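@channel sequence for tomorrow's demo:
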Amino acid sequence: MSIDSENNSLNAKVIYDLTSFTHLDYPNHLACIVWFSGCNMRCDYCYNKNIVFAKEGKQSYNDILDFLKTRVNLLEAVVLSGGEATSHELTLFCKKIKELGFKIKLDTNGTNFRQIKELLDLNLLDYIALDYKAPKAKFMQITHSNKWDEFSKTLDLLINSDIDFEVRTTLHADLLNESDINEIITDLINRGYKKPYYIQEFRDTGSNIGDIQAPKNKFDKSLLLNNIEIAYR
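structure tokens (generated this afternoon):
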């Protein structure tokens, strides 16, 4: 790629916002979060709807790289989130981040297998948080997308790779019940997943894509299978 074409691609305004500091989003690392605009899912519980529905970003890759140059030796890592970061071209951006000495964590719904595999093959990622939205039978209902097969392929890729990663599910008890979570747990075990499985509670921020409120149903954690480590957030 020529310098001119490289600069043109890095000037694309695809980034909705930047959180300049977090000690919560990348385990054991001080990081910033790059929020990419747009998403190929419409999960009812998602409270980032402004990001999801954004047609374009407010900042470019180069804007973020300029910021990162001022944080060398102050931050350790960069979290790529959204929206869905893999809806955008990430390879060159990740290479530039790595050149500055930062680790990279990717938050993803796993539906862009090609790009995730490329990033792994190039050793550009250090950690991945993969959202397991729902069991196959409820995947369309929860995500309003037909991307189960792509997600499934990515999950297998990560399990069979050396990448440090986690699988997590957002729980709204009116959308997913104990049987649904047990189905996810069984699927993870059958695929050979041996890491902790993270369940994060729905956050009622007063605004989300589906205009849903706090769940009316109670969720009984004691009914979950105990043959996998479950961590609650």
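heads up for whoever presents: Helices lie at 3-10, 49-52, 61-69, 91-99, 113-121, 136-143, 148-159, 178-191.
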